[in-house]
């Protein structure tokens, strides 16, 4: 599985799967082995099984072989056995391993796939195992492994991160007095600009081609969940945001097909020249270079409006490991700044999950990138300090339902309040953490 696909579309395990796993293990975090700090000061020994997710290939295998050899050289009595699982069916494989008691010591899980294991007490609380680790990692990445409903602790170390930036076609915008310096930095500013440009261009230039999805609420500072894990975003702030989208649609700033099942996506519409704005990662510059090279010349990247999204991959330690000191030491070694910088330099377009090191990566890869991609990478890296991940409880089925209801509101077939009330009720009725 490609890294970009994995970060953007990490599978969410069904509640039934989580309950089945909980049943296999006796259920609940109380089943985890004795907690407390783990002493890493002594000599390490024994075997550590390390599992990655579709990373054994020509590009990454030499990196991991060198990484493991270096760790074993520092700890001569430790042997690291590297296991790599295929991209497809990974979440099912994790459930199978957990249910049969064969979880590797160290494994790669995004926050959502980690949830059933956290619920069943099969992952180590890393904040408790090694107090003080938090300051070494990206704040949003650390938080993504620390907000499991009803469970205290942190259950993953941020490993590599992704996010999106805003892409603007200044070639279409400059005739209407919009320069790079004028580009909005807020969601409201973007929607206001969209209405103005649509009016002045008689609908020829559109800047809105996606629905007001939950990640837009998050970006705009709308509270998504309360302390008990219930969805609560049917607020006046969210209503105003959905209504602003409806106003933009009515003003001709949004293509009608963006509300239908035939919608190809905002990035595709940008590539086809139908809209003058899209969101996308730094790698979108490559799509522009191959599919619309003339458009690349007029495109610029700026930070996403509001709070940028965060896509997280991390390393986790099994609470069932019989060699926790070596397992924890190895997980920390893989995710330390030096090794994360080396990995994300190889995996160009991604950022290290550490608090520092992004500048090193940007400098290392800039020479081999198209200037537009290098510029977008710097924009993304600069924004990661304040980026936030979506709650793991938000599922693909919830997204589908929300899209249907919000399309009705944007078209004016229902009110924004009614749509949000229905979405919140559906989401709370289908929470995977209950």
TrEMBL record:
Residues 1-20 form the signal peptide. The keyword Transmembrane helix does not apply. Transmembrane segments: none annotated. The keyword Transit peptide does not apply. Pfam families: SBP_bac_1. Keywords: Cell membrane, Lipoprotein, Membrane, Palmitate, Signal. Gene3D superfamilies: Periplasmic binding protein-like II. This is ABC transporter substrate-binding protein. It comes from Glycomyces mayteni.
């Amino acid at each position: 599985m490609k890294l970009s696909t994995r970060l953007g579309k990490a599978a969410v395990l069904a509640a039934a799967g989580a309950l089945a796993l909980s049943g296999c293990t006796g259920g609940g975090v109380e089943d985890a082995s004795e907690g407390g700090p783990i002493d890493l000061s002594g000599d390490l020994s024994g075997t550590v099984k390390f599992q990655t997710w579709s990373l054994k290939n020509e590009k990454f295998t030499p990196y991991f072989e060198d990484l493991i050899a270096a760790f074993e050289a520092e700890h001569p009595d430790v042997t690291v056995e590297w296991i790599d699982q295929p991209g497809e069916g990974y979440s099912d494989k994790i459930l199978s391993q957990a249910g049969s008691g064969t979880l590797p010591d160290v494994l790669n899980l995004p926050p959502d796939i980690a949830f059933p294991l956290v619920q069943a007490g099969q992952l180590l609380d890393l904040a408790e195992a090694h107090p003080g680790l938090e300051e070494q990692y990206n704040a949003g990445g650390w938080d993504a492994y620390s907000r499991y409903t009803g469970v205290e602790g942190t259950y993953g170390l941020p490993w590599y991160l992704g996010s999106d930036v805003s892409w603007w076609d200044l070639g279409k915008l400059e005739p209407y007095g919009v320069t790079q310096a004028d580009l909005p930095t807020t969601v409201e500013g973007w929607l206001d600009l969209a209405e103005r440009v649509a009016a002045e261009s008689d609908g020829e230039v559109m800047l809105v081609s996606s629905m007001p999805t939950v990640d837009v609420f998050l970006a705009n500072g709308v509270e998504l969940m309360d302390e008990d894990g219930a969805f609560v975003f049917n607020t006046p702030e969210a209503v105003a945001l959905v209504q602003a989208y409806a106003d933009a649609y009515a003003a001709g700033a949004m293509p009608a097909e963006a509300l239908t099942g035939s919608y190809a996506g905002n990035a595709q519409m940008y590539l086809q020249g139908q809209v003058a704005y899209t969101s996308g990662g730094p790698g979108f510059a490559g799509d522009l270079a191959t599919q619309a090279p003339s458009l690349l010349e007029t495109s610029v990247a700026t930070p996403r409006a509001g709070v940028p999204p965060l896509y997280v991959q991390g390393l986790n330690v099994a609470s069932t490991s019989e060699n926790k000191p070596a397992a924890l030491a190895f997980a920390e070694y893989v995710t330390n700044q030096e090794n994360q910088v080396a990995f994300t330099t190889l995996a160009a377009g991604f950022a290290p999950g550490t608090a520092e090191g992004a500048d090193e990566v940007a400098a290392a890869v800039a020479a081999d990138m198209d200037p537009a991609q290098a510029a977008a990478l710097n924009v993304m890296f600069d924004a990661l300090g304040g980026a936030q991940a979506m709650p793991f409880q938000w599922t693909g089925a919830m997204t589908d339902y929300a899209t249907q209801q919000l399309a009705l509101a944007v078209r004016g077939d229902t009110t924004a309040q009614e749509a949000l009330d229905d979405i919140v009720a559906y989401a709370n009725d289908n929470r995977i953490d209950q």
